[in-house]
Write a structure and sequence with these properties.
It is a single chain. Strand 1 and strand 2 form a beta hairpin. The protein contains twelve helices and two strands; from the N terminus they run H-H-H-H-H-H-H-H-H-E-E-H-H-H. The chain has a two-stranded antiparallel ribbon. It has one domain.
């Protein structure tokens, strides 16, 4: 039995527990988190952020309250725009995939980051910097855009509200930027970027239920081999 079959069985058993309109609820949480940042910036880091050492010492609410950190663009108005764009993309994905699949994607991306950070904290020690460093899910939010660009590659965004650019082209630019940051950044930045791309793997597990993507890649590889042998 392939992974798609296991996932279908898992979904049929637990899909009734999916959170409906998760994209809307998370976007509201982003807005509340933005208000917290404006009124009391340190409250998030002291009480809501995901700090592995504090979670292991019993502050388990931080596993979920970490998402009070919004897609931060620096400026207040740009952050509001980023929240609206994230909501639009997530709402489209949820409508296309269904509630359960979007729940699995969002929480899967979140929990993969947290589980890896907790394991590293246990290995390196609760006093190490990885254990006391607050995890900001900035790169994790990027995985939603990647899923959107793969699902709707021809969708257009207006850069600076003027220049139309397709989602697939923006995705290429984003990947190039993160690749540059991966090559130049510290190892913790490299880790965050790798974990962000783990969301794309979850996407394939969710969407490629009949191994269509894998079969297509195999077909293209065989075609390339035939052309090479012919030459």
């Amino acid at each position: 039995m392939d992974l798609g079959s296991y996932y279908r069985r898992f979904r049929s058993k637990f899909q009734r527990y999916a959170i409906h309109d998760l994209a809307l609820y998370v976007s509201i949480i982003f807005a509340v988190g933005l208000f917290i940042q404006v009124t009391n910036p340190m409250f998030y880091f002291e009480k809501l952020s995901f700090v592995p050492s504090l979670v292991l010492r019993g502050e388990i609410w931080r596993i979920i309250t970490v998402i009070f950190y919004p897609p931060n663009m620096g400026d207040f108005l740009w952050t509001i725009l980023a929240i609206l764009v994230w909501f639009s993309m997530s709402r489209s994905l949820q409508a296309w995939w269904g509630d359960f699949d979007f729940n699995i994607y969002f929480f899967g991306c979140l929990f993969i980051n947290e589980i890896v950070l907790i394991i590293l904290s246990l290995v390196m020690g609760l006093d190490s910097f990885i254990a006391v460093l607050p995890f900001l899910p900035i790169y994790m939010y990027f995985s939603v855009f990647m899923a959107y660009a793969i699902t709707f590659p021809e969708a257009q965004f207006l850069i600076m509200f003027v220049l139309p650019v397709k989602a697939k082209h923006l995705a290429i630019v984003e990947v190039a930027i993160y690749l540059y940051q991966f090559l130049r950044g510290a190892w913790i930045v490299k880790l965050y970027i790798l974990l962000a791309f783990a969301g794309v793997i979850i996407y394939f597990l969710i969407q490629d239920r009949n191994n269509r993507i894998i079969s297509n890649w195999r077909w293209k590889f065989k075609q390339w081999q035939r052309r090479r042998n012919f030459r």
